[in-house]
Amino acid sequence: MLAKRAGKRGKCEIKIDLMGTRPEDRCLTTEEQEALDRFKKKDEQIDDMLVMVIQDIDLLKEKAVKIDQAIDRNAEKLQNVDKHASKTSAQLETINTRMKDILKKASPCIYLS
What we know:
The chain is α+β, with helices and mostly antiparallel strands and 113 residues long. The protein has one domain (9-106). The protein is 68% helix and 14% strand. The protein has one helix at 30-106; strands at residues 3-7, 10-17, 25-27. The chain has a 3-stranded antiparallel beta sheet with strand order 1-2-3, with no helix packed on it. The longest helix has 77 residues, at 30-106. It is rod-shaped and about 115 Å long. 0% of the residues are buried.
């Protein structure tokens, strides 16, 4: 367990509990404090990298949202094109049928399938 403590023998930044059994509380040695400082510095570097990753993810999210919106717009346009193509196809079929009828009446010897 870590805790801050100041005592008569000097300022002790961290008090540790060894193995959770509390055999004795003591101040960190210089080597232990240096190791702890290195860990803290490494943690700060990792935190900085995580901030950069989060920023990149936010940027990717914005791009993904724009792509999704473009897909939605294109899907709507495709539906309109399909609707108009179906309507045009139906009109062409009607015109073809009428033309066949006209040709049959105008020239009984010509047979169109």
